[in-house]
Input
Amino acid sequence: MAEEKESKGEKKYKYSIIIPTYNERLNIALIVYLVFKHLRDIDFEIIVVDDGSPDGTQEIVKQLQQLYGEDRILLRARAKKLGLGTAYIHGLKHASGDFVVIMDADLSHHPKYLPSFIKKQLETNASIVTGTRYVKGGGVHGWNLMRKLTSRGANVLAQTLLWPGVSDLTGSFRLYKKSVLEDVISSCVSKGYVFQMEMIVRATRKGYHIEEVPITFVDRVFGTSKLGGSEIVEYLKGLVYLLLTT
Amino acid sequence: MKHIVKILSLLVAISAFWIGLLQAAVVPRTHTWLLPIYFVVSLGCYGLLMVGIGLMQFPTCPQEAVLLQKDIAEAKDFFKHKGVDVGSD
Output
C-alpha cells in the first residue's frame, strides 16, 4: 500500500478540523470519538475553540487530550462568546494542516462524511468542498414543514439574487485549502450564518474551484439551541448586503 | 466585476429591449406597456414553482437519526471504559 502511494507520487496531507464550541460538554466528546473512528488512516488534528463555556466543555476537552494526545486535540479557548467568524480565524492561527475543515459541535454535522470531503478534494483538486443538504444523497431530519418551507424559500431567493454556484448556501460543514480559507475569511465581515453565506459567495466571486458532497443533517440532538431572534430579517439584510458588496 | 453590476446591466439590457419594442411598434403598444408586469409576475410564479418543487423533493433522512443514536451510545460506552465523564445533561 505504501509502495503504491510512493510510486504514484501521492503526498500525505494533514487536515486541521476546527470546531467552535459553546456549552457542548457532551457533544464535543462524541464528535471527537466519531472523528477518530472515521479518519483512521488520516493525519489530522482537532482544534477546539471554546468561548469560555460555563458547562465544563474545556474540562472534557482536557480529558480527551489525555486520552488521544495533545498533538491530536488542541484546545485554543477564548475568554467569552466572540462569534463564529473570529473563532475560525483564531483556530486558523493554530492550524498546522494543509487543509482546514470547519464543522459544528452539536452533532448536526456527522464526522462520517469527512472521508467523502477528503476524497472529493483529492479527486478534483478543488479549493473548497462544501457539504450540501439539499441534493439526492443528502437530507435533513428534524425539520417540520414550516422550517423546510423557509429553508427552501430562502434558498430560491438567494439563488435568484446571488447566483452563488452552490446548492446549500448556509451550510457550515466545509473543507478548505488552508490558503484559500485564509484568503476568503479576511474579506468577510458578517456574523452568524450570513457569515457562512458570505464565505461561499466571496469564494465563488474570487473564482475558486468549489465542489459539493451530499451530507445529512440531523437537527439538534443534544445541547441547547443557540439560534434565536428575528432570523428572517437578518437573512434578508444579509442577502441585500451580499448582493451589493460581492 | 461586482455581481450587482452584472444584474443591473442585465436589467438595463432588458429595459433597452423593451423601449426598443415600444418605439418600433412591431408588437401593438398596449401589449408592450404591459410586458414589465408580465415579466415580474412570471418571475414570481417561477420562484413559487421552484419553492414548491423544492419542498416536495426535500430530501429527508429519518434513518440518520437512528444511526446517530447508535453512534452516541457507542461513544458513551467507549468513554465510560476510559474514565471520561460524559454523563448526560
